[in-house]
Specification:
By secondary structure, the protein is mainly alpha-helical. Helices cover 70% and strands 0% of the residues.
Length: 255
């Protein structure tokens, strides 16, 4: 009906109004082991920094490997392990592994960062009530600059689902204004399309937009994410043969 059409249009606007920008693929350098015994966690700090750089570049699979190594290390400090757990959970969310992301943040102490990830996980699991409650309690001033765009993205998605156009437009603009890089805008775009697919709000215009994104995107990691979104959207529309051909193609991409 009219309400469904309005929601589909609003989700599409959210996805399309975040610019389609191409990020360069950044290779993760090979690490050498640090032998200096006076710096027991120097290697872990390097791994953590490389994980964060990989994440910012859209290389979520590489980031997961790097963060996991810090989490498993006996030399990492508690602060380093907490930061790695948060990074790991963020990358798992981007890989659509919400159950694993939940486990990654479960053991962490309460923080604004943890709440933000919990809110995003709840939304992606279609738990709008929990996502809304978490977002209402959050204070944007306590978030890091890199987290602020994600907070506004979460608020925009929740407002969109509630047909609150004023809040939707407000937080959408704030998400775009506060994004720190082209890569972050790409990551936000992947997430909002996924939210559209998961909620079942798919029509031909959303599928055509996803096809355009896949065609024009040159970053292997983002291409994988967009192709997966497109395949899931096609399944929702009962276009299973096309979805299957895309999924077969995904096997050949570097994960």
């Amino acid at each position: 009906g009219m309400l469904r059409h309005t929601l589909v249009t609003a989700v599409r606007l959210l996805c399309l109004s975040i610019s389609v920008l191409v990020a360069q693929d950044v290779p993760v350098p090979i690490l050498s082991t640090v032998d200096d015994k006076s710096l027991p966690s120097a290697r872990e700090r390097s791994l953590l920094q490389l994980g964060q750089q990989a994440q910012e570049a859209g290389l979520s699979s590489s980031a997961i490997q790097l963060f996991s190594e810090v989490v498993a290390s006996k030399n990492a400090t508690a602060i380093e392990k907490n930061a790695a757990q948060l990074g790991l959970a963020t990358s798992l969310i981007e890989r659509n592994k919400t159950a694993e992301a939940k486990l990654a943040i479960k053991i962490l102490p309460e923080s604004s960062s943890k709440n933000l990830l919990s809110g995003l996980i709840a939304f992606l699991e279609n738990d709008l009530i929990t996502a809304g409650e978490i977002s209402e309690k959050m204070n944007v001033a306590s978030l890091s600059p890199a987290e602020v765009p994600w907070f506004h993205t979460l608020k925009a998605l929740i407002a969109n689902a509630k047909f609150d156009n004023n809040q939707f437009n407000n937080h959408l603009n704030l998400a775009k204004q506060s994004a720190l890089s082209e890569e972050q805008q790409q990551r936000i775009q992947v997430l909002c399309y996924r939210a559209s697919v998961i909620s079942g709000k798919i029509n031909d215009s959303v599928i055509n937009a996803l096809r355009d994104v896949v065609k024009n995107n040159k970053n292997p990691d983002f291409t994988f994410a967009h192709q997966r979104n497109l395949a899931l959207a096609l399944v929702r529309q009962d276009k299973k043969n096309e979805a299957l051909s895309i999924l077969k193609n995904l096997e050949n991409l570097k994960l």
